[in-house]
């Protein structure tokens, strides 16, 4: 009789269990950071909330910051799938930018995104590797969408030929991020609209 074949080291059931565990860990990390704050969130707490051993977490991630980064990237990825396709291009640059900045305002005012983004931003200052991964995997792809939209506007004659889209996008996202980060004043749709008007038309008398 033929020898029975050894079981695959990665069976479908094991893969499904790993995915369920990973999903539970992501949900637990985001929930705990939202409830207790980043400083009081621990690997032990995440493991208990997710119903897994902390060794499972350490097998996949070296720190709670790394867990939170992947959990947030997963959350952002789900939101991105809902609005996939890049920035709108209706031919009206001002209207398109206002629409996108208003959506960004809504996201930054949503505790699901606000709390982990603040935690990762702060941790990225003291952990350069984490900060670099946060920029590379989340921020830069989002900024590239602005570059593509501004480049299209430039080709259509709606933006001056000599303007660098990578610098120009900072006129929109920079002030928005500054107000959100420092909480100087409320983040509103009206503010997003004003940013677009000031950036596109300047502040000098017309």
Automatic annotation (TrEMBL):
Pfam families: TetR_C_11, TetR_N. Residues 42-61 bind DNA. Residues 1-20 are annotated as: Disordered. Keywords: DNA-binding, Transcription, Transcription regulation. InterPro entries: Homeodomain-like_sf (IPR009057), HTH-type_TetR-like_transc_reg (IPR050109), HTH_TetR (IPR001647), Tet_transcr_reg_TetR-rel_C_sf (IPR036271), TetR_C (IPR011075). Residues 19-79 form the HTH tetR-type domain. The keyword Nucleotide-binding does not apply. GO terms for molecular function: DNA-binding transcription factor activity; transcription cis-regulatory region binding. It comes from the Bacteria. This is TetR family transcriptional regulator.
């Amino acid at each position: 009789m033929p020898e029975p074949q050894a079981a695959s080291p990665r069976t479908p059931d094991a893969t499904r269990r790993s995915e369920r565990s990973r999903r539970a860990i992501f949900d637990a990390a985001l929930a705990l950071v939202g409830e207790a704050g980043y400083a009081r969130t621990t690997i032990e707490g995440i493991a208990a909330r997710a119903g897994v051993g902390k060794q499972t977490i350490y097998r996949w991630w070296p720190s709670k910051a790394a867990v939170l980064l992947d959990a947030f990237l997963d959350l952002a990825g789900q939101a991105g799938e809902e609005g996939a396709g890049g920035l709108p291009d209706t031919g009206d640059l001002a209207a398109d930018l206002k629409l996108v900045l208003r959506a960004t305002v809504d996201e930054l005012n949503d505790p699901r995104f606000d709390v982990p983004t603040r935690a990762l931003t702060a941790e990225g200052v003291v952990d350069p590797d984490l900060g670099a991964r946060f920029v590379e995997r989340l921020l830069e792809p989002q900024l590239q969408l602005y570059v593509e939209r501004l480049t299209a506007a430039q080709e259509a004659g709606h933006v001056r030929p000599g303007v660098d889209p990578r610098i120009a996008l900072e006129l929109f996202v920079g002030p928005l991020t500054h107000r959100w980060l420092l909480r100087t004043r409320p983040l509103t749709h009206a503010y997003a609209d004003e940013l677009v008007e000031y950036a596109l038309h300047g502040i000098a008398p017309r």
